[in-house]
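agent> fetching stored inputs for the heme C docking request
agent> found them:
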Amino acid sequence: MSKHNKLTGLLAATLMASALSGQVLAHGDVTPQAVDTEGLSSLGEDWADTNPYRAPSDDHDLAVKIGASAYNQNCARCHGLDGISGGIAPDLRYLSPDFEGDDWFKYRVINGAVRDGAVYMPKMADTLSQEALWAIRTWLETKYVEE
Ligand code: HEC
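agent> prediction call returned; pasting tokens
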């Protein structure tokens, strides 16, 4: 095995381990990773009602690219790598790419999910920008699976 392959293997193993431990814990012990949204249109303070980066937005393609890695860094530990849920949290590929899906997405990332004092999902919007979260949503829409 070349040095490069070993490193890649190690990285994959580390990613797997953190994904797994995230699945076991899944109680909000999460360090959000900064997301560089440079190049995307700024959205200001107020939350948009619908995904502002959805096609035919000029921002669509860049949003998909930024959203893919932002998702894997901030959501995958609970919702599954590449959007495929391992069962611990809902599979986000089923969120419909329309107003209804936008509304629910927005509600959850702003409010998180807390039951009986336990944090099942942290309030992601406290630490990630609206731009980063809509970029994640834009990427998720490319993975959409009809129920
Ligand atoms: C610590 C684990 C965890 C992390 C990290 C997390 N979530 Fe969640 N999320 C959950 C759980 C658990 C639920 C189900 C909550 C419930 O139904 O009470 C959920 C629900 C959701 C829902 C509603 C889905 C549905 O079908 O009802 C959306 C949308 C969502 N999360 C988006 C995200 C996004 C986007 C990120 C990353 C920015 C993220 N979550 C990060 C655990 C997490």
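agent> quick read of the result: Residues 10-27 have pLDDT under 50 and may be disordered.
agent> awaiting further instructions
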